[in-house]
Design goal:
Elements: H1 17-38, H2 42-70, H3 76-99, H4 106-133
Helix pairs in contact: 1-2, 1-4, 2-3
């Protein structure tokens, strides 16, 4: 059985199935990277997983941001800034990894987990609550 870094629970749900399914996919990618890391195979698969993660994160962030605009979310710019900062951090890490100046480590794995969970529990819950307060039931 593969080790997991993120065990999805209902606590992480934003109560919008579309977003929850995207979050679960991202959690799965982080878990795949972690499993490879704990098996000593991270360097073999990191290129593929990080590329997929960067692409899917971009897709996910754009999906959220589309709803921010559509439903006039009050914290749009702050949330977008968080997205951009994360993308830069992951892209910089990936670039450093490709140059051989950094390797997959517990620090990197913990950063991915911590950012992901804090972002969902903090920033994503804020927009979910605001949307629900506005009567939005489904995205």
């Amino acid at each position: 059985m593969k080790k997991k870094l993120i065990n999805w629970t209902d606590e992480y749900s934003v109560d919008f199935e579309l977003i929850d399914s995207q979050h679960k996919k991202l959690a799965g990618m982080i878990n795949d990277l972690f499993a490879s890391f704990t098996e000593g195979k991270a360097n073999e698969v990191v290129d593929k997983i990080l590329n997929e993660m960067i692409d899917y994160t971009d897709y996910h962030f754009k999906a959220e941001e589309k709803y921010f605009e559509k439903y006039n979310y009050s914290q749009t710019q702050t949330h977008i800034d968080e997205h951009q900062k994360f993308v830069k951090q992951v892209t910089d890490f990936y670039s450093d990894f490709k140059k051989g100046s950094v390797t997959i480590s517990y620090d990197i794995m913990n950063f991915l987990r911590d950012w992901f969970l804090k972002h969902i529990l903090g920033s994503d819950k804020k927009y979910a609550n605001e949307f629900q307060d506005k009567g939005i039931k489904e995205l």
